[in-house]
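Journal club side-thread
Mid-discussion, someone asked how the predicted structure for our own chain would compare to the paper's figures. Pasting it here so we can look after the session.
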Amino acid sequence: MRTIWNGSLSFGLVNIPIGLALATSPKARASDVSFRMLHRECKSPIQQKRWCPVHDREVGPDEIVKGWEVAKGEFVIVEDADLEAIQQADDSRAIDITRFVPLDQVDPIYFDRTYYLAPASAPAQRRPYVLLLEALKDTGMAAVGRFILRGSETFCLIRPHGDALALETLFLAEDVRSQAEIEEAVGETEVKDAELGLARQVIDSLAADFEPTELESVYRRDLRALLESKLKGEEIAKPEPVPEAPVIDLMEALRRSVEQAAGKKEKKAPASKGQGRPTKAAAGSSRKR
């Protein structure tokens, strides 16, 4: 596995050699297809220039300085030396574990980016990795720590992921926005017992195990098809506009949802063993195929 950072996990007197590997594709948050901006007339890639509107000319890298906007058009100048003075001067390449916490207490809203922790190649160096993995599994705990990644202080949570350790970089508490406004609006709204009962029926009828392979991006699929068609010079078919759904009563919508979900379950239900002649519904469905 290709690692982007190599160091060690450190807690107490224990050091575990590890490597940091990306768990997801860098482009997974958007699309696996990227575009360049072109000049429509000549199809040449557009160049982004750093332009000063006051002097009406392009400026070079040595003429650019960072500025923090405190008011409209007013800036506090920050030099690179100012940032270097407060930057973490830590070249230990160690993830310092500061505490162990129950994993179920950590809300996933604090998770930023997921990495795999790869163990060392030598069998003797892998033993402490496996020991920590099994201990976290047995106790239901996770490790909270900090380290320096690309020159920046990073907080992290280390948790079991199957038979591997995963590292989640964490947002700080001040980075997570409050949901108090939503909770206030929800607290003022009441639901009827009958509505709640029907909603539970809808949930029960659609309940299933989580299957990651079923998460397919329709946009990615259609985008690839569009690009392949354009490459072949084919005409692109435009989809018909979807009519807006009429607004119906909440109770009626829940009842229809229950009926619809029940119908889907009946179609997916496998035939029982020892079944004799097919029913009319089954025979009809086989003729339709």
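Post-session note: The chain has seven helices and eleven strands.
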